[in-house]
Structures are given as structure tokens and as C-alpha cells.
Amino acid sequence: MLKIENLQAKVADKPILKGLSLEINPGEIHAIMGPNGAGKSTLGYTLGGRPGYEVTGGSATFNGEDLLELEPHERAAAGLFLGFQYPVEIPGVSFVQFLREAANAQRKGRGEEPYSGGEFLKLAKEKAGLLKMDMDMLKRPVNVGFSGGEKKRAEMVQMGVLDPKLAILDETDSGLDIDALRICGEGINSIMRQKDKAVLLITHYQRLLDYVKPDYVHILSAGRIVKSGGPELALRLEDEGYEAVVHETAA
Amino acid sequence: MSDTLTLPTRRDEDYRYSDLAALETLWPITPEEIHVAAGAEESLQVVLDGEAAVARHLVITLEKGAKYDLRVLSAGPVYGRFALDVRLGEGADFTFGAAQLATGSENLEIVTKVVHAQENATSAQIVRTVLAEKAVGTYLGCIGVERGADGTDAEQSVRAMLLDRTATANAKPELEIFADDVKAAHGCAVGELDAEGLFYLMSRGLPPADAKRLMLQAFIAEAFSGAPESDELNAAAQARLEAILG
């Protein structure tokens, strides 16, 4: 589904990704872990096409398409969803209006009929219910006045409505209390754990992986994946710390 | 504000950024008088959406306890001037919400003088301007508080959004206060659309023009919030925004 080969990217002239390779197949859940500054968020933003994240080498192919050639909205229409570590507040823009326009823009891009108002509300209500979110909250401006946990749950509601093929979730677990963590984890499983979908979880901690069990865990350090393994690798990291595990690889 | 028949020049503060060639074709501007009787409540909305140059000058007097709600959408004229002289009596309340949307080489301006002549009057002005290409948008707004007009509460919120670096926004909020017990708040900012917000919207599938429109709609809606016909104004603004964003 996603094939990243030797990806290199810089931000403000500073090289961050230095030859990252990764392949994700349908039905798989991957976790990328790594210390601060390793390039985890840069990977997410680069794949999402954020301005200022300049690709200097390598490739990323998404379902046979050159992902890096696409505009951010085209990447979304192709089935990529980027969950933000810090979802952006947009005063005055209603969450449901934005989400409906976004969903319909994607459908239009794929040559599908737009959702009617009724269809959309039904879908949004269903996904909001899944994330235990009050529909009234979604009538408010995008993320404005949402708590940290509400912002992350609202991201998952968006993911549910937009129904992507691949979700890259950047520290969805940060800023969540124990209950919200469980709700988000269950939301990810219910929306994305399917044969034809895949997830790339970017995280610092094992705790989200207790709910969303990864098939593969990768350690990112200094812009490269330095070690890959199964779920046990995340547990080892939690016990021994990044330094010990990364150092062992380098030796 | 000058009511003379002589065509103003650049030295005239109130006409400093005007399109003088266009102004000449409209000169002199006939003031339109509006008188709101004591205790009366009235509202007016003005939509300037034709392409032709237009200049209007409203002179509004609010008697004791009168309320007036004025909303203006200036979206289309090659040159559009909207000037306002308001005089508030005791306890009167004046609301002014305006949006100016321009592209190409259009020049739009709003020039206001709001005078609190007596005690305890309130006034609020919200002006939102969106400018693309080489458009010029101006707000010159003076709040005057006369001697003895204690208990005055006057607000001015002026913001302009530049969609291209080639557009120009001029803003000059002014206060002339001759009373002691006065609350006067003014805020003024010229900026660009929040890049982070735009990327967020686009990452969800909105094409750039739609993402910008959505953010600008919210920006403009602030000027029409609470207006009796806000839906109509917002719809007209949206149509113009779509044309500007192409």
C-alpha cells in the first residue's frame, strides 16, 4: 500500500529524514517509535505534504501512485489520513460544515456522489458515538475550546467519516487521559483494523499499543529506521529505553 | 468631513488612499441623512455588489436611547467608498459591521466618524477586509467623545487579510477623547491566512481555494454576526469570495 524508499527530507534547510525506508501492506498496523528529534513528526508531515517539508531524495509510492507528486488534498482523496499531534483550532468554521465539505470534496475527487445533508449527519453521528463524542460539540468551530482529549477524539471522528485507506497518526496518544486513550484506541481498531486498510502509528509510548496492537514496530533514530521487529520490541523499549536499544543496533 | 464642492486631493486625510480619478466621476457626493428618533430601533443593510464605481456618505443622528444597526458589504465595485458620520445622543447605541472584498486593481474604502455627544452611549464597529492581487482596502475610523459624554463605551475592531503580497491594506483607527469616564477599545491587524490552518483543512481533502474560502467566510462573518439579515449578507460575501479565489 505504502512503499517508502530511502526518503530524505529537510525542514528549514536542516536535513531531518536521512534515508528512511518502510513498506506497509493492507491489513497491517505499524508503529514508529523513537526519541525526541528523531524525525517522527517530520515523517508524518512529509507524507502529508505540509509546505516547508522539502523532499530531497528517495520516493514514496501510495497504491502505485507517486505520493510526493500530489497536493495535500489529492493525497487525502487518494485515501491518506494524517492525524495531527496538535489539531489546529479554526475559529468561526463549524466542524460539521468543514467535515462535510472535506468528505464531499474527496468523493468528488474520486468521481463519487456527494453526501446529502441527511446522509452526512447520520454518518457523523455514528462515528461521534463510536468516539463517545457529543454531536453538539461538533457543531462548534473546529477544535476551538476542545480539551486535549476532545481534539484527539475529534480527529478520530474525522477519520471515521473520511474512511481513509491509510491513517498516519502522529502521537494520537499525547495529551490523553486513561479513558480517552482507551476510547481512541478502540476507535482506531474499529475504523481501521480491516483487511484493506493500514495504520502507521507514531508514538513515544507503549501505552497506546496496549489498545492498538501493532504487527510491526520500528525504531526511528536520527532520520532512519534503525531497528524493526514485532510488538515485543515496543515492550523492550519501555523496559530498557531508546538509548540502550538504539546503541545495541549501532554496535 | 468635507462637504465642499471642490474635489479633494491626496492631502485631504479622508481621501488619502482614494481612487481620485474614479472619485471625480462621482463628485460631489450627496450626503444621505438618517435620523433615528428617541427610543427608536432601526437597521439598514447595504450591499455594494455592482462593478461600477460608487461613493456614499451617510449622516446619521441617534436621539436619546435610539438604536441603529448598520451593515455594509462592499464586494464588486472598481472603486467603492462608504463614508459615515454618526452622532450619538444620550444612551444611544450604534452597531456598524462591514466587510470589503476586493481583487484586481479595485480600491475600497470605509471612512467613519462616530461621535459620542452625550452620556452613556455605546458604539461598536467591526470591519473585515479581504484583498487579493493589487487591490487596495482602507479603513479610516475616528471615534470622538465630546466633553461631558461620560459613560461612553466605544469599540473598534479592524482586521484585514491579504491573499497576495501585492495587495495593500490601510487602516487608521483614531480616538479623540474629551471626557473622563470613557471605555474605548480598539484593535487593528493586517495579516495573512494562517498557513497551519490551511494545511489542516487541505489535509482533510479540501482543495486550496475551498480551504481559503472556508476560513475567509468565518473571518467575514464576524462583521455580520448578530445582523437581522446576516444569512443574506454572508451568502453575498461567499459568492464574491468564490469569484475572487477563482
Overall description:
The complex is a heterodimer of chains A (251) and B (246). Helices cover 41% and strands 29% of the residues of chain A. The mean pLDDT of chain A is 93. With 251 residues, chain A is α/β, with parallel strands linked by helices. In chain A, the strands form three sheets. Chain A has a six-stranded mixed β-sheet, with helices on both faces. In chain A, strands 2-1-4-5 form a four-stranded antiparallel β-sheet. Chain A has a single domain, classed as P-loop containing nucleotide triphosphate hydrolases (Rossmann fold, 3-Layer(aba) Sandwich). Chain A has helices at residues 40-48, 72-77, 95-109, 117-130, 135-138, 148-162, 178-192, 207-211, 231-250, and strands at 2-11, 14-24, 29-33, 53-62, 65-66, 80-83, 90-94, 141-142, 166-170, 198-203, 216-221, 224-229. By secondary structure, chain B is an alpha/beta fold. In chain B, strands 1-3-5-7-9-11 form a six-stranded parallel β-sheet. In chain B, strands 2-4-6-8-10-12 form a six-stranded parallel β-sheet, with helices on one face. The radius of gyration of chain B is 18 Å and the shape is globular. Chain B starts with 19 loop residues before the first helix and ends with a helix.
List the helices and strands and how they pair.
The complex is a heterodimer of chains A (251) and B (246).
Chain A: E1 2-11, E2 14-24, E3 29-33, H1 40-48, E4 53-62, E5 65-66, H2 72-77, E6 80-83, E7 90-94, H3 95-109, H4 117-130, H5 135-138, E8 141-142, H6 148-162, E9 166-170, H7 178-192, E10 198-203, H8 207-211, E11 216-221, E12 224-229, H9 231-250
Parallel strand pairs in A: 3-10, 3-11, 6-9, 9-10
Antiparallel strand pairs in A: 1-2, 1-4, 4-5, 7-8, 11-12
Helix pairs in contact in A: 4-6, 6-7
Chain B: H1 20-26, E1 32-36, E2 41-48, E3 54-62, E4 67-75, E5 79-88, E6 93-102, E7 107-116, E8 122-131, E9 136-145, E10 152-162, E11 168-177, E12 182-191, H2 195-203, H3 208-224, H4 230-245
Helix pairs in contact in B: 2-3, 3-4
